[in-house]
Amino acid sequence: MVDYPEDLKYQDSHEYVRLEGEIATIGISAFAVEELGDIVFLELPESGDAVEQGETFGSVESVKAVEDMYAPVSGTVIDRNEPLIDAPEQLAEDPYGEGWLIKVRLDNPDDELEDVLSAQEYRALVEGDE
């Protein structure tokens, strides 16, 4: 059973965002990890790089495919999950905890999450309940 934590917001491209004040933690959903299969490589931006809402911020490569990841928010990368870059297969173990990808300081904290999905909306999207 795939988990959809209620405290997260999701994009239809399978990224999630957790907001804590002006800081957004971004990762990819357990559904996406399961669909990708064995993950072998991650490409993530460096600290200090700018990310733009709706634009590509990196990619994830599995034995099945290479998928671009799209930023759910705009801002400046303040941290990236270095241990995950060295061992991307660990993303499957805890995508919502230790499997986060980047942390971003938001440009506009009040205007960022207009086009994201709740956990229920995302579940309906990926499980075909709409």
TrEMBL record:
Gene3D superfamilies (UniProt xref): 2.40.50.100
GO terms, biological process: glycine decarboxylation via glycine cleavage system; protein lipoylation
Sequence positions bearing N6-lipoyllysine: 64
InterPro entries hit by this protein: 2-oxoA_DH_lipoyl-BS, Biotin_lipoyl, GCV_H, GCV_H/Fam206, GCV_H_sub, Single_hybrid_motif
Biological source species: Zarconia navalis LEGE 11467
Named cofactor requirement(s): (R)-lipoate
Name under which the protein is recorded: Glycine cleavage system H protein
Gene: gcvH
Pfam family, one: GCV_H
Role, per record: The glycine cleavage system catalyzes the degradation of glycine. The H protein shuttles the methylamine group of glycine from the P protein to the T protein.
A GO CC annotation given for this chain: cytosol
Keywords: Lipoyl
